[in-house]
Design goal:
mainly alpha, 2 domains, 60% helix, binds heme C
Length: 113
């Protein structure tokens, strides 16, 4: 009698291990099949300006920055480092490529466009 119970327990444990193992393998498979989620990317400089900079720079919180032919290098520096009431933005907020685009946009855009 004792022997049978022992065997049954072993069998149950083995089955449980199999089920867990199989479902874990399933998870692994699903994970590798999933396409990697694309990171957020700003469409262009105008969008960054409209969604981020305009919040202050079109609301008289910050000075007008469009239509002044500001140097893109200066704009980039301001955005990364901030200056007094101008906040700094990290690469996680505005990536380098989008920053280059918005700097170019602000530099070239007319004041009220
Ligand atoms: C939270 C409000 C706010 C946001 C958002 C903001 N700015 Fe500013 N910005 C300011 C303020 C205020 C100043 C003036 C700082 C000072 O001189 O005290 C400023 C100054 C600047 C200057 C210097 C202007 C000059 O006359 O020399 C530049 C360039 C600039 N911001 C670019 C940007 C860009 C590009 C963005 C978007 C990526 C942006 N800012 C987003 C508030 C903001």
């Amino acid at each position: 009698m004792k022997g049978t119970t022992g065997k049954r327990r072993v069998l149950t444990v083995c089955l449980a291990a199999l089920v867990v193992g199989a479902s874990m393998a399933g998870v692994g498979w699903a994970a590798t099949q999933e396409p990697s989620a694309p990171g957020f990317v700003w469409k262009d400089g105008a969008e960054v300006y409209a969604k981020v900079c305009a919040f202050c720079h079109e609301a008289k919180v910050g000075p007008t920055i469009r239509g002044r032919g500001l140097d893109p290098t200066y704009i980039t520096f301001m955005v990364r480092h901030g200056n007094r009431a101008m906040p700094s933005f990290r690469a996680a907020e505005i990536d380098d490529e989008s920053l280059a685009k918005v700097a170019e946009y602000v530099s070239k855009a007319a004041a009220n466009q």
